[in-house]
Amino acid sequence: GREVEYVSISRDTTEADLKQRRELTGGSSYFVDSAPVRAALHGRVLILDGIEKAERNVLPTLNNLLENREMHLDDGRFLMSPAAYDALLASGYTTEELERRNLCRVHPDFRVVALGLPVPPYPGHALDPPLRSRF
């Protein structure tokens, strides 16, 4: 009964594909959030299909989002874990101040499901151990 965001991972998937893309409308450009960012902000389930195909340059971004609930976005925003965001609120910052600083709270209901093939002993690349331990 939860909303889902879906990402198909391939060898061509880049870090930018997991964060934001730039679009042009009416002669001006702006950033559009990708599925992982939308899932994190709105508490949706993120499905990563083909996780074993992720290239090494993409793994740190995925791992940081999974482990720390943090991600720096190209438009200047920074996603941060609910606990860290709430700690800032408790220390005296207001929500408006944090929004002015481009800090965004990851929703506590954000979950990730990764679909992939178990590689060894099958042909293919093994998952990065830090990433594998998240699942």
TrEMBL record:
<dbReference type="InterPro" id="IPR027417">
    <property type="entry name" value="P-loop_NTPase"/>
</dbReference>
<feature type="domain" description="ATPase dynein-related AAA">
    <location>
        <begin position="2"/>
        <end position="135"/>
    </location>
</feature>
<dbReference type="GO" id="GO:0005737">
    <property type="term" value="C:cytoplasm"/>
</dbReference>
<dbReference type="GO" id="GO:0005524">
    <property type="term" value="F:ATP binding"/>
</dbReference>
<protein>
    <recommendedName>
        <fullName>ATPase dynein-related AAA domain-containing protein</fullName>
    </recommendedName>
</protein>
<dbReference type="GO" id="GO:0016887">
    <property type="term" value="F:ATP hydrolysis activity"/>
</dbReference>
<dbReference type="InterPro" id="IPR011704">
    <property type="entry name" value="ATPase_dyneun-rel_AAA"/>
</dbReference>
<dbReference type="Pfam" id="PF07728">
    <property type="entry name" value="AAA_5"/>
</dbReference>
<dbReference type="InterPro" id="IPR039891">
    <property type="entry name" value="VWA8"/>
</dbReference>
